[in-house]
């Protein structure tokens, strides 16, 4: 298998820790490693080499992090402008041999059950070898409204549902036949391109031009990249194809989509020290201070996340993590230099 890492994403809900120069997948928060590095390491058991789809501005740091993590063969497809996941995956598929199984993963997920993850990926690879596109579905832990869902029967996909409202999400959880859509999937490069040509011919044709430019020169002109219609691989292919299988998994998974998830990960799975924080009549278990350039004192405060960076200080009440996206928008409009 060949590992395709999708390195896009700005991590707006982790501002000010995550910014344009260093988005969340590149932050060395997890025992000195980034989410990108952890992504490569947990998939290295199955993949001989890695292709990273990156923003041009982050190409060097992505290459450095992967090399430091032990990836011996790293290819970078640097996008001058992002056109969503269908375009990124098409570029990788065009650059691979048709029978190569591509294991496609986001760079910014955190998985805490490596043995179960390995088992899940090996099962998915078996279906992929038979000519299927295979997505990984996660057993839902609660009625999350921020994730896509997959209705399934055994390993067959019944339908995809995008980000339901709270009532619908609760009903899905109760039914027992829905999974969270993890965004991880695999399939042969040739099969993926066949399905893309069938269901999204405009993306296929324009991505072919961009891929040819990259293979010939190592670069993609901006106007060539901009000509690719922007769409997700889910909308463009997976939701339309009749050859998709799903592998249900109970692995421990997080997209680290906000500060509550990040705080839980740091508290439960990684050695993270609050040694630059003082807790006076405050709870050091359910509160966390991220950032170490100055001492932070918490007095009489519970259930907060404090993010201490050189440019901005964020004090967040747990449970309000989704509101950081609104804060990010305010900063974009009023203090864009802080992004």
Topology:
Layout (H helix, E strand, L loop, with lengths): L1 E5 L28 H9 L5 E7 L3 H10 L5 E6 L4 H11 L6 E6 L3 E2 L2 H16 L3 E6 L10 E5 L2 E6 L4 H10 L2 E11 H11 L1 H17 L4 H5 L6 H6 L5 E6 L3 E2 L4 H11 L7 E4 L7 E3 L5 E4 L4 E5 L4 E5 L6 H11 L5
Parallel strand pairs: 1-2, 1-4, 2-3, 6-10, 12-14, 13-15
Antiparallel strand pairs: 4-9, 5-11, 6-9, 7-8, 7-9, 15-16
Helix pairs in contact: 3-6, 3-7, 6-7
Model description:
This protein is α/β, with parallel strands linked by helices and 339 residues long. The protein has 2 domains: 2-254, Spore Coat Polysaccharide Biosynthesis Protein SpsA, Chain A; 273-338, no CATH class. The chain is built from 11 helices and 16 strands. It has helices at 35-43, 59-68, 84-94, 114-129, 166-175, 189-199, 201-217, 222-226, 233-238, 259-269, 324-334, and strands at residues 2-6, 49-55, 74-79, 101-106, 110-111, 133-138, 149-153, 156-161, 178-188, 244-249, 253-254, 277-280, 288-290, 296-299, 304-308, 313-317. Strand 15 and strand 16 (313-317) form a beta hairpin. Helix 3 packs across helix 6, helix 3 crosses helix 7 and helix 6 (189-199) crosses helix 7. It is globular, with a radius of gyration of 20 Å. The model has no long low-confidence stretch (mean pLDDT 91).
Which percent range fits the helix content?
25-40%
| Count of helix runs | 11
Whole-Å distance between the termini?
Answer: 37 Å
Low-pLDDT ranges: none
Mean pLDDT, all residues:
91
Overall form? globular
The CATH architecture of the largest domain comes to Alpha-Beta Complex
Task: Report the β-strand fraction as a percent range.
Answer: 15-25%
Tally of DSSP β-strands: 16
């Amino acid at each position: 298998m060949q590992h395709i890492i999708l390195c896009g994403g700005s991590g707006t809900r982790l501002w000010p820790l995550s910014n344009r120069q260093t988005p969340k997948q590149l932050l060395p928060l997890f025992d000195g490693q980034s989410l990108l590095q952890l992504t490569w390491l947990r998939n290295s058991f199955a993949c001989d080499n890695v292709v990273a789809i990156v923003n041009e501005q982050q190409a060097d740091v992505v290459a450095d992090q992967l090399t430091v993590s032990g990836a011996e063969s790293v290819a970078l497809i640097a996008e001058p402008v992002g056109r969503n996941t269908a375009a990124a995956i098409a570029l990788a598929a065009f650059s691979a041999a048709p029978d190569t199984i591509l294991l496609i993963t986001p760079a910014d997920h955190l998985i805490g059950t490596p043995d179960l993850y390995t088992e899940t990926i090996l099962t998915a690879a078996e279906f992929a070898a038979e000519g299927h596109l295979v997505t990984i579905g996660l057993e839902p832990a609660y009625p999350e409204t921020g994730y896509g869902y997959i209705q399934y029967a055994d390993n067959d996909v019944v339908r995809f549902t995008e980000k339901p409202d709270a009532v619908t999400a609760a009903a899905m959880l109760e039914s027992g036949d829905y999974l969270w859509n993890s965004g991880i999937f695999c399939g042969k490069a040739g099969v993926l391109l066949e399905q893309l040509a069938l269901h999204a011919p405009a993306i296929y044709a324009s991505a072919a031009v961009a891929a040819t430019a990259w293979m010939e020169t190592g670069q993609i002109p901006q106007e060539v990249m901009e000509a690719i219609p922007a769409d997700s691989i889910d909308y463009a292919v997976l939701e339309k194809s009749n050859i998709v299988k799903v592998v249900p998994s109970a692995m421990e998974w997080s997209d680290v989509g906000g500060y509550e998830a990040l705080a839980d990960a740091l508290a439960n799975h990684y050695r993270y020290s609050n040694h630059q924080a003082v807790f006076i009549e405050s709870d050091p278990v359910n509160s966390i201070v991220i950032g170490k350039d100055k001492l932070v004192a918490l007095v009489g405060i519970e259930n907060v996340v404090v993010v201490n960076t050189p440019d901005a200080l964020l004090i967040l009440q747990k449970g309000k993590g989704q509101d950081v996206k609104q804060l990010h928008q305010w900063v974009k409009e009023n203090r864009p230099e802080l992004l």
